[in-house]
Write a structure and sequence with these properties.
heterodimer, A: Arc Repressor Mutant, subunit A, 0% strand, B: 2 domains, 5 helices, 69% helix
Chain lengths: 66, 163
């Protein structure tokens, strides 16, 4: 439960585009190309949003590892 | 800890997200085997993704997305399905319509059979009526012939001679 709250809190730190990218990739399992088609933007943009989101989430959810 | 070969650092995020092909994956793993910094990076990514997966079993919180997001926008066929077959009233109407069509089809088959029966009955009745008419004609002819013979016998027996 605490982990769920931590994840929820971490996801709140993302902007809408980054959250959408995380949802599509992590929870829906779409490929980069599919995400680009769904979101209507280039693959490079999708990767940029997702990688930035992962950096943010990583600092919150895996601080001990870093 | 930093990567020992920053120029050759694999794309660990793509690796962790399952976006690398087999060759790139093998190269990344070979690099991680000799680079403590990359192992730490990969471990942090795995911890992060594992933590995110706790929500996988739960419903994805709607508050982190908006109905207006294209992600949540249903396809045209999903909307059509919700308005039609997912609607109990529409489904019931479809079932009733199908039943009516099937009934009409079956009835049309009955009509063909009934027409054949009617034609056969009409033909049989016509044959019987023709036979009866023929028998009546034969009986009438026989009756007239008997009457004629009876008249001749009466005339002969009574000595009546027609003038």
């Amino acid at each position: 439960m605490e982990l769920s709250l931590a994840v929820d809190s971490a996801l709140r730190r993302l902007n809408e585009d980054q959250r959408a990218a995380v949802l599509l990739k992590v929870y829906q399992g779409f490929k980069f190309e599919e995400m680009a088609e769904i979101l209507g933007c280039p693959v490079s943009t999708v990767k940029s949003r997702l990688y930035t989101a992962l950096d943010v989430l990583k600092t919150v959810l895996a601080p001990a590892v870093l | 800890m930093m990567c020992t070969a920053p120029d050759a650092t694999p794309d660990w995020k793509a690796y962790a997200l399952g976006e690398l092909d087999a060759a790139a994956r093998w190269a990344a793993e070979a690099h991680a085997a000799v680079c403590a910094g990359c192992r730490d990076e990969l471990a942090a990514l795995r911890v992060t993704l594992d933590a995110l997966s706790v929500l996988r079993e739960e419903e994805i919180p709607r508050r982190i997305g908006f109905v207006s997001d294209k992600v949540f926008e249903p396809h045209w066929w999903q909307r059509a399905f919700r308005l039609t077959f997912a609607n109990p009233t529409f489904s019931a109407a479809c079932v009733v319509a199908a039943a009516i069509l099937v009934h009409a089809f079956v009835r049309s088959g009955d009509a063909v059979v009934q027409a054949q029966i009617d034609a056969a009955v009409t033909k049989a009745v016509a044959q019987v009526e023709t036979r009866h008419a023929q028998e009546r004609a034969e009986m009438l002819a026989a009756s007239e012939l008997m009457q004629k013979y009876a008249t001749q016998m009466y005339v002969v027996s009574n000595g009546i001679v027609r003038q």
